[in-house]
Amino acid sequence: MQNLNKTCRAFAAIGAATILGALTTTSAMAATNGYVELVEDVSPAVVFVEVTASIQQADAETSPMNDPRFEEFMKRFGGEMMPQGRSTPRQGVGSGFIISDDGMIVTNHHVIDGAAQVTIKMAGGEEFDATIIGSDPLTDIALLDIEGADFPTVSFGSSDELRVGEEVIAVGSPFGLGGTVTSGIISAKSRNINSGPFDDFIQTDAAINRGNSGGPLFNMDGEVVGVNTAIYSPDGGSVGIGFSVPADLVTDIVADLKDDGEIDRSWLGVQIKPVTEDVAHVLGLNSGEGVMVEDVVADSPAEAAGLENGDVILSFAGQDIEELRDLTRGVASEAAGTVAEIEVFRGGEQITLDVTLATREDKEA
């Protein structure tokens, strides 16, 4: 009996080892396979965007090329510095992705800004002339169209559901090298890089370089969760800090552009500033709570609603306001004509005002 028990235990050990070995082999195969199937599924819908424009160069004193900010623009655009004093064709490259089988393509505004001609090159080598449906410089999103049918497509996923540490891949055309795939993780969410009023970037360490602008950032389900837009780089190359516009924002912008080629944003009519810790302490507010109204624009929805200088806006349309961009995005996300509640701290008490938003006509909040 004792020998039988030993034999049973031996067979059990062999069985466990066999199962463990099988699992290890399967895991090894999965690890070896990597992102192959995912890349094969999404790559046909990722395109190379080639832009040609002609600009008249200003003289040496007034040329924007003397502004150091222009160098950063060119890094994002993917172009090169040009000789001054004459009209010179300018070429730039970027990336994009097809979202409808009839040829709607999403890319960055800065990729196609000022373009005289936009050419789309497919993964299979086909080329198409693209029409710019519309673009939005504030979110850096543009919508293009090419003629044809039955194009390969990719779809948007939810960027709100992303978690820091989640795996992602970027596909695009860095330095004109179409179909380049890089992998990484979500490094952070809701990054403000001071590029505009709607900063809410996804940060990733997936390598993004010049030419990746406008390309998609995919989750492991093959859904577009971001549009690669900018990098932090001391030397112009990837150092593992890239930024993407969240898909949830992109879908709203694309839907608006698809409608009439323009973005219809609401307008409140206030100039605002942060509530400092000292001011919060004096007013009896928590640190980081609300934004202060510095000025109310005349004949604006804010004036009509009764907002006053010195008011601290605590919430807008049911959403807490903790920093400037919270109010900017909140107003922009509501349609003109919407009646929204604003909770305000004034004179030591909280009051609620109703504001009817108007259409933003190139007015800056």
Largest sheet: 7 strands, antiparallel
Fraction of residues in helix: 10-25%
Corresponding CATH architecture of the largest domain: Beta Barrel
Widest sheet: strand ordering: 5-4-1-2-3-7-6
The structural domain count equals 3
Structural class: alpha+beta
Return the average pLDDT rounded to an integer.
82
- Treating each run of at least 4 consecutive H or I residues as one helix, how many helices? 8
Report the strand count. Answer: 21
By CATH reckoning, the class of the largest domain would read Mainly Beta
Q: What is the helix/strand order?
A: HHEHEEHEEEEEEEEEEHEEHEHEEHEEE
Shape: elongated
Distance between the termini: 86 Å
User: What fraction strand?
Assistant: 25-35%
Care to describe what's here?
Helices cover 24% and strands 33% of the residues. The protein has eight helices and 21 strands. A hairpin with a 5-residue loop joins strand 4 (117-121) and strand 5 (127-129). The longest helix has 32 residues, at 2-33. The relative contact order is 0.11.
Would you spell out the secondary-structure blueprint of this structure?
Layout: H1 2-33, H2 36-42, E1 46-56, H3 68-77, E2 87-98, E3 104-107, H4 109-112, E4 117-121, E5 127-129, E6 131-136, E7 141-145, E8 167-172, E9 180-191, E10 201-204, E11 216-218, E12 224-231, E13 242-246, H5 247-260, E14 266-267, E15 270-274, H6 277-283, E16 291-296, H7 301-305, E17 312-316, E18 319-320, H8 324-332, E19 339-346, E20 349-356, E21 358-359
